[in-house]
Amino acid sequence: MQRILITGAAGGLGRVMREKLKPLAETIRLSDISDMGEAGPNEEIVRCDLGDEAAVLDLVEGCDAIIHLGGVSVEQSFDKILNGNIKGVYNLYEAARAHGHPRIVFASSNHTIGFYTQDQRLTPDMPMKPDGLYGVSKCFGEAMASLYHSKFGQETAIVRIGSCFPEPANYRMLSTWMSFDDFTALIGRCLSVPRLGCPIIWGASDNDRGWWDNSAAGFLGWRPKDNAEVYAASVLAKDGPLAADDPNAIYQGGMFTRDPIHKT
Q1: Which residues carry out catalysis?
Q2: Considering the entire predicted model, what is its pTM?
Q3: What is the pLDDT along the chain (264 residues), one digit of tens a residue?
Q4: In the list 70, 176, 182, 217, which could disulfide-bond 8, CB 3.0-4.6 Å?
């Protein structure tokens, strides 16, 4: 590809993907509201507030694909979530429509289904059960992706990311963890398959303790290679046995199910 846009490029996952996705395009366009440092070789830096419709329209111009990691990534007040995760998603899809429908990889979240219990194995077609305002905003983003696919043919890979970190940090992540390498490989498949559509994909590695059935995304040819079980002994030694009423031992969304509705 000539140009891939990464939104949220100043975030933890965005910084990792900034490096790992370089082989996929001649130019990587990086965007965030926060400082992203200096542009490296074959990089473009564009500061952009996703809530600014005109700025997002300019941001998407000339892009062959969009890796949408931008917006609020934790539970916050509704006003903060509204700008980046709701207005921002609308602005992004309108900009994509205006600029020829570049394929989108949308970073959704396991928090769209966080109130399912851990003894349930989920398929993508099961009803949403968000565990907070952040989760609700990702439900909205998934609905926008579906609408724009049905109405305009916009292709999106909706990736319900579990926990994408260098390694699992707690008991719950032994089920939800996705390695950076597995996410990079997934993005590569989403951008290269001849026809993508608008699938919901569980963003997790091949974890022995996983809760999610990804068979519906088999057409992508993505086979995660990593497994959180490699880290199980050290995680369990640190995290210890969890109390029976601990949300991290009950709900797939973990502690997000206990977060208050933030007003500020």
Answers
A1: 134
A2: 0.96
A3: 999 999 999 999 999 999 999 999 999 999 999 999 999 999 999 999 999 999 999 999 999 999 999 999 899 999 999 999 999 999 999 999 999 999 999 999 999 999 999 999 999 999 999 999 999 999 999 999 999 999 999 999 999 999 999 999 999 999 999 999 999 999 999 999 999 999 999 999 999 999 999 999 999 999 999 999 999 999 999 988 899 999 999 999 999 999 999 887
A4: 70
Tokens 């439900």, located at residue = 139
**CA–centroid distance for 253 within its chain:** 15
Place of tokens 């507030």: 49
One-letter amino acid for residue 10 of the chain: A
How many residues does the structure list for the chain?
A: 264
Specify whether the CB–CB gap between 156 and 191 falls below 8 A: no
Supply the Cα-derived Rg of the chain in whole angstroms: 18
Encoding tokens for residue 17?
């993907």
Distances from the Cα of 35 to the Cαs of 3, 39, 47, 86, in angstroms?
21, 11, 8, 22
CATH, domain range 3-258:
3.40.50.720
